[in-house]
Write a structure and sequence with these properties.
By secondary structure, the protein is mostly helical. The protein folds into three domains: about 220 residues, Clc chloride channel (Orthogonal Bundle); about 230 residues, Clc chloride channel (Orthogonal Bundle), CATH 1.10.3080.10; about 160 residues, CBS-domain (Roll). The strands form four sheets. The chain has a four-stranded mixed β-sheet with strand order 3-5-6-9. A hairpin with a 2-residue loop joins strand 11 and strand 12. The longest helix is centred in the first third of the chain and has 42 residues. It is elongated, with a radius of gyration of 32 Å. About 45% of the residues are buried. Its main location: membrane. It is found in: Cell membrane; Early endosome membrane; Late endosome membrane; Lysosome membrane. Keywords: Antiport, ATP-binding, CBS domain, Cell membrane, Chloride, Endosome, Glycoprotein, Ion transport, Lysosome, Membrane, Nucleotide-binding, Repeat, Transmembrane, Transmembrane helix, Transport.
């Protein structure tokens, strides 16, 4: 190495000239050590039973914040399956074990579905009760919310259906009066007090007991499903605290939803139940199949959309989704939805609060406003992603991020103070969406339905009518609510409390859609002779449904933020039961995706994955550059040489020295320094565990014991200490590419096989290594970003 000409820089991209490749020198053994490359007979000192032929406990497991080896996990599972199949005919017990193994997949998804449905029902009921607690209390039964309190009342009238003697507002309880400025101020004060109390309790519980319980959880679940290990993220503490704090966060009135976090809750259930079955607890790749099914169950109970949940898991969160997982996801979603329906948390025999049915068809000319709502959704999505990521980045890099409790209290206080005066922002977001989706009928008391009647004081609700003063005041309040929701959602998503994005995005779209819907309705009424309306709308006939516009707007805004398409349309269709409105939904969702993609291709979850620097290779992202493997591999120019191990030329002391001096996760094993031919790849963690295990269980393993990765021990002098065989931890078939392989193909291999690293060779000789992080750094460089700023710390 030292004799090489300085001009022939060994760290330049390898051009095929010569055979010498820069590899880190490893101290040579003395000449009295005759080497046999596994071909010679084993020496007399190695005839003892080699404990390392047995599986070593701990080998094949992973450290926190490391990526799993998908190929190795799949091989491990195939080997386990073969073993069970070969033994099942030996006895009835072995046959029973094989049956249990075959059914364990269905059992674990059943348990996950049951737990997800039960927890979702509990969260729905508790959040409704606590939300109403901000406004008053039911004296006849404290555990009833406002609606349940008035169910049995005989004093309610059609005009004042929300008022009954059993339900007392805080002003009535404290001051003894229901009307007047004093009671308004008292109700205002109590609303702010409860909102701040809930928010404070939620953020304190998260901070003290389970820091991983904050946020929506979907970016991290996507990363975990791609093979990354985040210990504790799906643990029992996270599940317990997330369930409690989700109720508190929703009840505090912050601009967030419970739907995203329900996916995290369901995945926690899936992870916990997978530990009951060795098939899943001991195999990280198999465990991710359960988590894919769990995420489908989470969406199923969040929206009452089992099929939408399966498609969400397939389209949005899962990295590896075999056909078997599709069936199990479907089953988990079915079980979860069945349990939630049995609990009936909303008392309407539906799985969701805002289930609606429309009875009028849509007309072709309405595609124009539907597409305009799609454009609005795409613009809102792009604006939200850019501003929210900028704010989250600022939070990470400034002192403000060090005080999460103060930030939550501040945002909750502003939200409560501004929200109370406006009836549309004061109420629970799900109830707001329900009111905006609902079509006006004779039983509706909403301001949005106060049309001027033309038929002797009664309104024919099947006809379009001129808007009354109630509708105009509602329009102004909705416009203010829209601005408020847009601003507060940007600052709320990313707080240290459980916060979903589905419901706030849908609320923004529903408000915009309802405003457009009422505008179209009035246009059709006053200008029914226009070319657009003349052909479809007869005078006085009902041809515009404002609630439908709210539904389309909600889908468009959610699509703009998440960039979901197929699963989103199915979720909204299942939410509303409107099969004939699939085309308007598809048109709006596709438009919002195209408009959003024009400003940036990644959705909010991908943006947060990038912000946190998780090692996630997005399968939707295209790699279009013409670089080669040798330009990305390490060692680069000016890098230290590649650390390698020789197959039978190291002592335990030298091997431990290499491990202590470097921080690499694994080392290529080569035949010798002279040939530099590749033998395999050994992981750092496996080497450390194997050495500790051998010292504990084997006699005669000392610091100068020879380490060998070959089948047979090298020929050693008679007085040398017992050698240590590490062949069982060696990956004999590591993935290799040549130095001239285009990076486009390398990236594809990493995505499709879920590799951790890939070795680069030239004419069969080791040249360098490419890891997942090298690829992410390279992609960041190609996109003109700082490669170090995107990596997880």
């Amino acid at each position: 190495m030292e004799e090489e000409d300085a001009a022939a820089d060994p760290y330049l991209p390898y051009d095929g000239g010569g055979d010498t490749i820069p590899l880190q020198e490893i101290p040579r053994r003395g000449s009295n050590y005759a080497m046999s490359n596994g071909g010679g007979a084993p020496s007399s000192s190695t005839h003892l039973l080699d404990f390392l032929e047995e599986p070593i406990p701990g080998v094949g497991t992973y450290d926190d914040f490391h990526t799993i080896d998908w190929v190795r996990e799949k091989c491990k599972d195939r080997e386990r399956h073969r073993k069970i199949n070969s033994k099942k005919k030996e006895s009835a017990w072995e046959f029973t074990k094989s049956l249990y193994d075959a059914w364990s997949g269905w059992l674990v998804v059943t348990l996950t579905g049951l737990a997800s449905g039960a927890l979702a029902g509990l969260i729905d009921i508790a959040a409704d009760w606590m939300n109403d607690l901000k406004e008053g209390v039911c004296l006849s039964a404290l555990w009833f919310n406002h609606e349940q309190c008035c169910w049995t009342s005989n004093e309610t009238t059609f005009a004042e259906r929300d008022k009954c003697p059993q339900w007392k507002s805080w002003a009535e309880l404290i001051l003894g009066q229901a009307e007047g400025p004093g009671s308004y101020i008292m109700n205002y004060f109590m609303y702010i007090y409860w909102a701040l109390s809930f928010a404070f309790l939620a953020v304190c519980l998260v901070k003290v007991f389970a820091p991983y319980a904050c946020g929506s959880g979907i970016p991290e679940i996507k990363t975990i499903l791609s093979g990354f290990i985040i210990r504790g993220y799906l643990g029992k503490w996270t599940l317990m605290i997330k369930t409690i704090t989700l109720v508190l966060a929703v009840a505090s009135g912050l601009s967030l939803g419970k739907e995203g976090p329900l996916v995290h809750v369901a995945c926690c259930c899936g992870n916990i139940f997978s530990y009951l079955f060795p098939k899943y607890s001991k195999n990280e790749a198999k465990k991710r199949e359960v988590l894919s099914a769990a995420s489908a169950a989470g969406v199923s109970v969040a929206f009452g959309a089992p099929i939408g949940g399966v498609l969400f898991s397939l389209e949005e969160v899962s990295y590896y989704f075999p056909l078997k997982t599709l069936w199990r996801s479907f089953f988990a979603a079915l079980v979860a939805a069945f349990v939630l329906r049995s609990i009936n948390p909303f008392g309407n025999s539906r799985l969701v609060l805002f289930y609606v049915e429309y009875h009028t068809p849509w007309y072709l000319f309405e595609l124009i406003p539907f597409i305009l709502l799609g454009v609005f959704g795409g613009l809102w999505g792009a604006f939200f992603i850019k501003t929210n990521i900028a704010w989250c980045r600022r939070r990470k890099s400034t002192r403000f991020g060090r005080y999460p409790v103060l930030e939550v209290i501040l945002v909750a206080a502003i939200t409560a103070v501004v929200a109370f005066p406006n009836p549309y922002t004061r109420k629970n977001t799900s109830e707001l969406i329900k009111e905006l989706f609902t079509d006006c009928g004779p039983l509706e008391s909403s301001q949005l339905c106060q049309y001027r009647s033309q038929m002797n004081g009664t309104k024919a609700f099947s006809d379009d009518q001129p808007a009354g003063p109630g509708v105009y005041s509602a329009m102004w309040q909705l416009c203010l609510a829209l601005i408020f929701k847009i601003i507060m959602t940007i600052f709320t998503f990313g707080l240290k409390v459980p916060s979903g994005l589905f419901i706030p995005s849908m609320a923004i779209g529903a408000i915009a859609g309802r405003i457009v819907g009422i505008a179209m309705e009035q246009l059709a009424y006053y200008h029914h002779d226009w070319f657009l309306f003349k052909e479809w709308c007869e005078v006085g006939a009902d041809c515009i449904t404002p609630g439908l516009y709210a539904m389309v707007g909600a889908a468009a805004c959610l699509g703009g933020v998440t960039r979901m398409t197929v699963s989103l349309v199915i979720i909204v269709f299942e939410l509303t039961g409107g099969l004939e409105y699939i085309v308007p939904l598809m048109a709006a969702v596709m438009t919002s995706k195209w408009v959003g993609d024009a400003f940036g291709r990644e959705g909010i979850y991908e943006a947060h994955i990038r912000l946190n620097g998780y090692p996630f290779l997005d399968s939707k992202e295209e790699f279009t550059h013409t670089t080669l493997a040798r330009e990305v591999m390490r060692p680069r120019r000016n890098d230290p040489p590649l650390a390698v191990l020789t197959q039978d030329d190291l002592t335990v002391e030298e091997l431990q020295g290499i491990i202590n001096e470097t921080s690499y996760n694994g080392f290529p094993v080569i035949v010798s320094k002279e040939s530099q031919r590749l033998v395999g790849f050994a992981l750092r963690r496996d080497i450390t565990i194997a050495i500790e295990n051998a010292r504990r269980k084997q006699e005669g393993i000392v610091l100068n014991s020879r380490v060998y990765f070959t089948q047979h021990a090298p020929t050693l002098p008679a007085d040398s200490p017992r050698p240590l065989k590490l062949r069982s931890i060696l990956d004999m078939s590591p993935f290799t590419v040549t130095d001239h392989t285009p990076m486009e193909i390398v990236v594809d291999i990493f995505r499709k096989l879920g590799l951790r690293q890939c070795l680069v060779t030239h004419n069969g000789r080791l040249l360098g290594i490419i890891t997942k992080k090298d690829i992410l750094r390279h992609m960041a460089q190609m996109a003109n970003q700082d490669p170090e700023s995107i990596m997880f710390n």
